[in-house]
Amino acid sequence: MYSGRTAALIQAWNTTWFPETSPVRLAVCRIIVISAALVFFRHSLEEQLRLIELNENFIKPQAIMIALSHILTLGVVRSPEFFVGLYWVTMISGFTALIGFFTKTSALFFSLGNLIIIAHGASYGTRHHTEAAMAIFLLLLAFSPSGACLSIDSFLRRFRAGVKGPSSWGTHARLHNAYWPLLLTQILLSLTYLSAGLCKLHRGGLDWMNGYTLQSHLLQDAVRWEIPFGLWLAGQHELCILLSVGVILFECFFFVAIFFRKITPIILLAGVGFHIGLIMAMAAPFLTLVTLYVVFIDFDAILSFVKSRFTQFGLLRRPAVLTRF
Which of 81, 108, 141, 179 has its CA 20 to 30 A from that of 134? Predict the structure, then answer.
């Protein structure tokens, strides 16, 4: 049906994006990211209502808000009642997506609710671009088998099929569509960092790494937020040169983590250190990006290793005991 070269390309595409994998890894990522979104990165309803009260109209309306305004009218979209309802629908769907009840539908409502809330906040002139990556990952959960295991949906499927007893990590049917959301998010993270690095080089060229630019940014944020460590660091020119070079190398070459898995842990640890440093010196929390690092982690391998150790030391006589869900 296809020529040899075309067939080889299709095979390479399918091998890269749709390998046969366990759904456990995607399910664990679903639980971790949604938990973080609900607990640590939950949007404030009070802030949304405050924006409506303080502004007579949008300042820089985002595309989502423009579309909603045409569908529901601007008065409805900017009404407190609309946002109270939207907020609680988003929170409830987030919880049901977390426990895996009607997982795809719940994830869709949760992701769309988050996108609308983010777009609303950005329509008044302030944008936090780091929120986008997590919102997109949440949307990917709605179009993937993120509830194939570790979910109420999977329990109900087993119950209807008459399967008795707890299942274990290793008994799930391997799927061909459980890896692509993880790989796509890895690429998205890489592009996020790469765009930040290239933007620095585009605006400042190699001079961005002369230390003075970083000193200026550190000084501005440290004075604004009253951060003693940031003020001290802003006075260390030689150290700022090293840090500037390190930032550019990290942001421009983060994508290497996708292709060279042996050094992925090193790059992720560097990323954690990078973001901790931003918080300590500049009060710049980009922790949504750090949370998404979980898409690089092979939870199947970790759980298999832990399970084998428990078995080796006689702590796991019946494998199902510690692997039920």
Answer: 81
